[in-house]
Amino acid sequence: MNGRTKLAGRAVYLVDGARTPFIKARTEPGPFRASDLAVWAGQALLARQPFGPAALDEVILGCIAPTADEVNIGRVAALRLDCGDRVPAWTVQRNCASGMQALDSAAQSIAGGRAELVLAGGTEAMSHAPVLWDTPAVAWLGRVSSARSPLERAKAIAGFRPGYMKPVIGLLRGLTDPVVGLSMGQTAEILAARFGLTRAMLDAYAVTSHERLAAAQAAGRLGEIVPIIDARGRVHDHDDGVRPDSSVEKLAKLKPVFDREFGLVTAGNSAQITDGAAWLLLASEEALAKHGLTPLARLVDVEWAGLDPRQMGLGPVHAIAPLLARRALSLEDVEYLEINEAFAAQVLACLAAAADPHYCRGALGLEQALGTIDAARLNVDGGAIALGHPVGASGARIVLHLAHVLAARGARRGIAAICIGGGQGGAMLLERE
To answer: Could you list the active site residues?
Structure first.
């Protein structure tokens, strides 16, 4: 609990935000690239502001895997949003928390007096993740292209081996930790075993996520979503991965994915592969006054934590604990929480770890358990199991939705937290006056 990430300086406010519907990846690349998604959401957000895009001091966008045509995707999006040549823009990458990192970077600029208005968020088109060639195939292509004569080229071509045609699925490689050699799903299996979770518990949590999202859609509680239209004229206006008819009985029929013999983690109790984008507009108090803006909430503090990559799903607990300690708060003081649902096993493990005095003493340095996280106050409108986890955008989405939850329910304080591949966790504390 070193407090190194404390947000100090001027107050930082979340003024407004918007996101696209989260579109489930299916059998082919989706209708939008990552920059397209960011532009759709950004246009809707900026169009309703009393200032033009050029009034922004900075644009910061989180993204893990932009396409080759979207290098420094933050700048690409800013220019397409008509922010103008003079508004600087950049891209951040902190795996699953890239969108949250963008918000933190924006907040630091405002708190430190370097900016007044910043557009920050995240985007990801996971369905467009690249299919690659492995090193031997690339080396062969290099020999062919560098041949200086027809004879040399023929010899190089003759060196082709059928194994060169085996593609490398970029998404699968990216979801595997290169240090410990485990996929994110395998780390979830480790947590399920450590905390004695059962398949029924995981599936029941997944069903609740779908039920809550379906209820939120029916009640119109997802006002942060802006409709988008693809090149074929199809309107996308809701998170299309939700399964209102989901049940424990249906999910029980699915086979484990990461440990086929003994595993508990299935496609049904894991986050969906999804495309989507989310932006927030952050402002100083001076900018609020200048433009007559009414904030959704104040971004009070941020915490980043590191832990064993094999148990990366516990990252939210490792970030929440020092954040609360620094602010002299307890879990009872936090009215609502958003914890990104990478896996049902991961969220349930976070709840178990927070309530376990032994874990909190040994891993978090606390004298007692962090406390009980009330399921009724957690992810009240569903989470990534139901709506998807476009990795670059999720960190921004949970902060945006938490701000809306606090406003809609007349609550004062909330925390958004996320686990991060590679063994990290991030948490943001929001408050409303």
So the answer is: 96, 389, 419
